[in-house]
Amino acid sequence: MSQERGLTLVETARLFALMNVSIHDALQTTLASKFVYGLWRPVTAIRQADTDLNAATAPDSTWLPLLPTPPYPSYAGNMATIGASAARVIALAIGTNDVEVHTTWKQSGGQADMTHTFSTLSDVAQEQADSRIYGGIHYRFDNVAGQVAGTAVAEYVFANFMTPR
Q1: For the whole model, what pTM was predicted?
Q2: CB 81 within 8 A of CB 146
Q3: Which residues pair with 141 in a beta bridge?
Q4: Could you give the CA distance from residue 18 to residue 150 in angstroms, rounded to a whole number?
Q5: 65-83, pLDDT tens digit by residue?
Q6: 68-99 in b/e burial notation, b at 16+ Cβ within 10 A?
């Protein structure tokens, strides 16, 4: 993106610094929230549904998520924070969210490579967040909270640090 927009070396370095500071600071927020709220992960909620004080739920002791469950509480979602923070600070730095992004997964075993195209930076961030729900390690509200934190931190970092001279 920086090459396509003709950013100088200094502008590109600033973009990378803003993105990394934003991601780091946003992650500090979500990591802290995990231990403030201590919310159980989907695997625990599903397996122990008979302990949730809701007679309408039933446990499934054999349920497994598609992704390995991290060994810490769920809320707020770290990957949702990373994606939202990076997407927002990049959009602020280059002046638009409307950036077409192409991602290619290289396949093995003679299968054709797969390319996915996104219309905006925020679309990339949303798919990153959704992957944690599809993988069974987060709830939607985990991701919404992570995205809110990531976006807010990105906006604060962009407005207050490493401003152009």
Answers
A1: 0.91
A2: yes
A3: none
A4: 13
A5: 999 999 999 999 999 999 9
A6: ebeeebbbbbbbbbbbbbbbbbbbbbbeebeb
The domain locations on the chain are 9-50+61-104+115-160
Helices (H), 106-139: 121-134
Query: Is the N-terminal amide bond of 17 cis, ω within 30° of 0?
Result: no
**CA of 92: how far to CAs of 11, 47, 111, in Å?**
13, 43, 38
Between CA 126 and CA 50 the distance in angstroms is: 32
Chain segment 19-71, per-residue pLDDT in tens: 999 999 999 999 999 999 999 999 999 999 999 999 999 999 999 999 999 99
Q: Which pair of structure tokens corresponds to residue 69? A: 């469950």
Q: How many residues does the chain have?
A: 165
Q: Say what the pLDDT of residue 156 is.
A: 98
The token pair that represents 24 in the structure block: 């780091």
DSSP state of 111: P
